[in-house]
Each structure stands twice: as structure tokens, then as C-alpha cells.
Amino acid sequence: MLSPDSGPASNDPWSPYGIRTSLDRSAFLVDLMTAAEKAGLAVEQLHTEYGHDQLEMSLAPASAVETADAVILARIVIGRAAARHGMKISFSPVPFAGAAGNGAHVHLSLADAGGPLFSGGDGPYGIRPRGGAAIAGVLDTMPDLIGVYAGSALSAQRLKPGNWAGAAACWGLENREAAVRFIAATPGNPHGANAELKLVDPSANPYLAAAAFLGSALRGIDRQLTLPPEIPEDPRRSEATPPPLPTDQRSAIEALERSTTAAELLTPPIIEGLAAVRRHELTTYGDRPPAETTQALRLAWSC
Fold first, then answer.
1. What is the CA radius of gyration of the chain?
2. Whole-angstrom Cα distance, residue 243 to residue 13?
3. Rounded to 10 degrees, what is the CA torsion of 249, 179, 222, 259?
4. Over pLDDT 70: what percentage of the chain?
5. In angstroms, rounded to a whole number, what is the distance separating the alpha carbons of residues 119 and 184?
6. Burial, 186: exposed, middle or buried (Cβ in 10 Å; 0-12, 13-18, 19+)?
7. Is the pLDDT of residue 244 over 80?
């Protein structure tokens, strides 16, 4: 949430995930939820987040295209509701230099004729072999697809260890530092196991991010890849060091352009167009200091 001049929305004390910060903004939140319902958006959660003036909205599960449609609609609804309350909204990966970033986490659940792939099996946390292959496929293609998931001029400022941004190419149960956070099934939700791709940020095209995520998982299944060992803790403290990801924008663009896998999943024309946009960003903003870049792009992804 931003002020009308695109600065911080408030200087009030902020309690991450706290009820007081929600109650203080109840008029806006109620208006937002009412507008979302009228627009047909299925919202599962809306709550205050870690960063100052930061909110998180979780959308209900749907197909890949329906989910991407919902993301676009949600941004419009959120922006219009904020305007009615004298605010602006930033969907920038990093609205303010040195402050908390914004994620656009994507959750994936898969099933076949035998049931869910992420539960009911003999693997870790009940993961079935095809579910493990899906996670392995996502990790296998990840270095090539950073430019799709988090390839903007600001993405690298968010994609750092300690930011809960999934900066490490590994998976782990409820591991917010892992690029793939695994959420296991529970007795109350036996079919609810899913894999969350944490490194995606709001600068990503939601249609391309969903296609890359799903396509990578299916590629892993087709190739019968083996689930890598879990990294259950902060990767910086793990004995098994995950491979590094190309987090600076130039490296991400180059990895995307030379990747035959990215072209296979998304087609060469789409890769060419996406890389051209990212190179324009790099040329325009690559040499600017973080404070200047975050200010220039604060509203770049807002509606």
C-alpha cells in the first residue's frame, strides 16, 4: 500500500500478521473483499504481511489459465479499491530499496488416475514417484527459467538469502528459503499436498510463469527424474549446498536465451520477445542505484 504520491502509506507501527494492523485498515479490507466477491474472485486469505504496509492475498486453486486470469483481475480489483481509499498499490518485486519485497508465489498440485501425486505414496511426506519427478523437473529447469519467474531489473534485489524468496535451488518441507517449498497433506486436507514455487515475483507474466512451472513439472514426469534429497533447513546452514541460481538480470537473460528447454516449453518467439523486454530494462535501469530503480519502477506492474 502506498500514499497518493507513491510514498509509504503510513508511518504507523506495523505488526506483521497482527490483528491490530488489519483492524486499523478494516474499511479498506472490507471494501476490497466485497469488490473481489462481486468480481467473482475466490479469495482464500487476505492478511497483513511482514513488510510495512504490505498485504497478502491468496487465491483459490484453479486451472493454470484460470489462475493467471484471476491474478490479473485481482490486481485490477485491488488497485481500484485502494484508489477509493486514497491509496496506490505497488506490485513491484521491491517497492523500496532495502525493504521487504513482494512475491507472487505459485502453488501446484497434480493428480493422475491413482490420486494425488504429492501424497499417498512411499516417498518423503507421502510423495509418489511421479510427484517426486515433477519437483525434480521444476528444479532441473529452474536456472534456465529465472528470466521467466523473476527476471526484471528489480528481481535480484528480492531474490537473496534470508528474504523468504526461495533463492536456493532446492526443495524442503515448509522451507521458505527453498525455491520449492513443499506443503504436505494433513488429516483435515488429505488431498491438499502441493509444491509452492517461491521465487516468482509480480514482475513475471502470470501466464508464462504458470506455463513454465507446469511444463517443467510435466517434463520431469516424462523423463522420470529422481527427487533430489530434501534441504530441510536454511540452505546457508546445510551441509549439502544447493547449486547457485543466475540471479542478476544479465545472467538470467542470457540463460533464458540460450536454453533449448525454455524454447521447448514456451516457444522461441515468446522467449525472444520476453528477452527483448528484459534487455530493454537492463539497458535503461541496469546501471542505476537501487533507490533510483525502485522509485522508477514502483508502479510499473500496478493497475
1. 19
2. 39
3. 10
4. 100
5. 7
6. exposed
7. no
Which H or E run contains 135? helix 129-149
Of 107, 109, 129, nearest in space to 193 by CA = 109
For residue 106, what are the β-bridge partners? 197
Amino acid identity of residue 77, one-letter, is V
Amino acid at position 189, single letter: N
Residue 265, classed as helix, strand or coil, is helix
Strands (E), the chain: 43-48, 55-59, 106-108, 111-112, 115-116, 168-173, 178-183, 194-197
End-to-end alpha carbon distance in the chain:
13
CA distances from 290 to 7, 52, 121, 154 (A): 16, 19, 46, 8
Q: What is the three-class DSSP state of 173?
A: strand
Angle of helix 206-222 relative to helix 129-149, nearest 10 degrees, comes to 140
Q: Which domains are assigned to the chain?
A: 1-90 (3.30.590.10), 101-279 (3.30.590.10)
pTM of the complete model beyond 0.90: yes
Query: Can you give the pLDDT at residue 44?
Result: 97
What residue type is 275 in one-letter code? A
Distance from C-alpha of 141 to C-alpha of 19, rounded to nearest angstrom:
40
The pLDDT-based confidence of 158 (bands split at 50, 70, 90) is very high
Digit-coded pLDDT (tens) for 105-139? 999 999 999 999 999 999 999 999 999 999 999 99
Q: What would the grid cell of residue 218 be?
A: 510435466
* pLDDT tens track for 40-76: 999 999 999 999 999 999 999 999 999 999 999 999 9
On the question of pLDDT at 240 being above 90, the answer is no
Torsion (CA) 191, 193, 195, 198 in degrees, nearest 10: 120
